């Protein structure tokens, strides 16, 4: 972004002696005016706005950013010297690299989250008090925010996250008058090469780093810890997403969900004699989980491979059909263009019989092509249906195998659960008898355990209730995984069939529409 941004003339406020400015919005007329200013070689229709790389809307008294939804290819947008108060309406401009909002009435930085490709941002001469709302602008290279109301040094610290940031201008802000401003900015935003459009000298950088050495070391240590936490969180999220794709969400932590997070199970675990049963439960459950995860991982790989092969076959089929259709239409259009040339001849135009003969010939050729195109589409659809049936059979086999793995896994888990329940019940009854006989060893038990064992009815209720709760959790987990497998086959087989039906309807409609347009053209002859 050039320094000239900071040297623009200020726009006139509405209450100046020159009168209130005309309030404008971004409309087609204003867009066309901008395109004329940019001197493009051709005129763009509204449906072609996505092809426009640059738009100049400066000095237009705009009060709102709107009507930019079609500008997905926009690289540069100038909205400086207007009356804009809110940054909004830019979400569609995802490829924007250069944005100038200087000389407006903006109070807050917002509405930029989708502009992940932005490298240059000009906010000169607004009413901004805080640098914020730019977390997603990881490619930011230049920020011009001079002549605002930014007052504190922590706004500079916010910029530390932008490792590509090379130039920052805060001149004309209250913070720029702070004696520590320059050294703080240089030391806390290490990527900077320019501050307020002046190159940062090596001696200035060295002095600033020495001045804030202790603070920077502490800051770097905190950043290392945060980075480590962030990396761990990303790995955890990636693992969750993969588990969901494998249709095993929550399986790895199922023991904690079933046993350790259940309130009634937690109550009974205060009894020391039950600890060995919990350990055995955990160990056996882990073996089952590891085996099940491995099997479902293999199923996941099979699914991915078969899906890829199916889509490869379908893409090849559709590509071949599209190529054949294009060749047929091109061959027809050679004759059509020859007919148009003949009909444009004045001598031919005066001979109505000859004109009619040419038109009839074109219509006959169009109808013949239509019949052949529809035959080819029917043939292609039959082949697609055959591929779909083959894939559906394979998908059913994969799903059935996965369902068997799920059923076996939970069957084994229920055996572990039953053994745990029986052990705790049997041991619990023995403990109740010992406690009733005055066994002295219970004096060493935690108070919560003694209180639980003193009430036989409450104890039995908790043991049975905990078992029932765990059974409910296990049943629900099994139902969820079974539903996940059925959803997979519905998504990929049912989805493919729906896509194929839609494609066929669209293709037939395209053929009919094309031939009808040719017939209408010939009828006018």
TrEMBL record:
The yes or no answer to whether the keyword Coiled coil is present is yes
The UniProt entry, under InterPro entries, shows: Cilia_flagella_integrity, Leu-rich_rpt, LRR_dom_sf
Gene3D superfamilies assigned to the protein according to its UniProt record, in alphabetical order: Ribonuclease Inhibitor (3.80.10.10)
Keywords assigned by UniProt, alphabetized: Cell projection, Cilium, Coiled coil, Cytoplasm, Cytoskeleton, Flagellum, Leucine-rich repeat, Repeat
Q: What is its main location?
A: cytoplasm
The answer to whether UniProt assigns keyword Phosphoprotein to this entry is no
Q: Which SUPFAM superfamilies does the record match to this protein?
A: Outer arm dynein light chain 1
Name by which UniProt lists this protein: Dynein regulatory complex subunit 3
Query: Where do the coiled-coil regions begin and end?
Result: 202-229
What's any one GO cellular component for it? cilium
Family stated for the protein in its record: Belongs to the DRC3 family.
| Organism domain of life | Eukaryota
| Record's subcellular location | Cytoplasm, Cytoskeleton, Flagellum axoneme
């Amino acid at each position: 972004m050039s320094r000239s941004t900071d040297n623009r003339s200020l726009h006139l406020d509405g209450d100046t002696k020159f009168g209130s400015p005309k309030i404008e919005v971004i409309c087609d007329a204003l867009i066309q005016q901008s395109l004329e200013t940019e001197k493009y070689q051709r005129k763009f229709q509204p449906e072609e706005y996505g092809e426009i790389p640059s738009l100049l809307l400066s000095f237009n008294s705009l009060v709102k950013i709107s009507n930019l939804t079609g500008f997905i290819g926009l690289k540069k947008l100038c909205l400086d010297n207007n009356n804009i108060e809110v940054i909004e309406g830019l979400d569609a401009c995802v490829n924007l690299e250069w944005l100038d909002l200087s000389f407006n009435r903006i109070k807050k930085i917002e509405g930029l989250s989708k502009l992940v490709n932005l490298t240059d941002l000009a906010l000169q001469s607004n009413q901004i008090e805080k640098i914020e709302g730019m977390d997603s602008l990881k490619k930011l290279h230049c920020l011009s925010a001079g002549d605002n109301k930014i007052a504190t040094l922590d706004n500079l610290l916010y910029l530390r996250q932008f490792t590509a940031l090379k130039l920052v201008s805060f001149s004309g802000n209250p913070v720029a008058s702070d004696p520590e401003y320059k050294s703080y900015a240089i030391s806390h935003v290490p990527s900077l090469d320019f501050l307020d459009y002046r190159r940062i000298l090596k001696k200035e950088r060295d002095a600033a780093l020495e001045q804030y050495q202790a603070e920077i070391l502490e800051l770097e240590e905190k950043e290392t810890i945060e980075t480590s936490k962030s990396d761990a969180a990303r790995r955890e999220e990636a693992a969750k997403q993969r588990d969901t794709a494998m249709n095993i969400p929550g399986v790895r932590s199922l023991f904690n969900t079933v046993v350790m997070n259940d309130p009634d199970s937690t109550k009974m675990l205060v009894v020391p004699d039950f600890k060995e049963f919990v350990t055995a439960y955990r160990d056996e459950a882990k073996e089952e989980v590891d085996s099940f995860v491995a099997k479902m991982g293999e199923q996941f790989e099979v699914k991915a491979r078969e899906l890829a092969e199916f889509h490869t076959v379908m893409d090849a089929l559709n590509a071949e059909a599209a190529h054949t259709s294009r060749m047929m239409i091109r061959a027809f259009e050679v004759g059509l263009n020859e007919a148009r040339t003949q009909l444009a001849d004045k001598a031919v135009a005066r001979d109505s019989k000859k004109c009619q003969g040419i038109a009839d010939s074109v219509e006959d050729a169009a109808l013949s092509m239509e019949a052949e195109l529809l035959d080819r589409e029917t043939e292609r659809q039959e082949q697609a249906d055959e591929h779909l049936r083959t894939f559906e059979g394979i998908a059913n086999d994969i799903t059935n195998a996965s369902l068997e793995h799920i059923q076996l896994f939970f069957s084994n888990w229920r055996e572990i659960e039953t053994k745990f329940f029986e052990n705790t019940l049997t041991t619990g009854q023995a403990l109740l008898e010992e406690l009733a006989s005055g066994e002295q060893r219970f004096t060493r038990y935690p108070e919560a355990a003694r209180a639980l064992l003193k009430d036989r009815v409450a104890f039995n209720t908790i043991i049975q209730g905990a078992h029932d709760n765990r059974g409910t959790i296990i049943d629900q987990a099994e139902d969820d995984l079974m539903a996940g497998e059925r959803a997979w086959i519905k998504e990929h087989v049912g989805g493919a069939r729906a896509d194929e039906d839609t494609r066929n309807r669209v293709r037939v409609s395209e053929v009919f529409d094309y031939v009808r347009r040719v017939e209408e053209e010939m009828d006018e002859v």
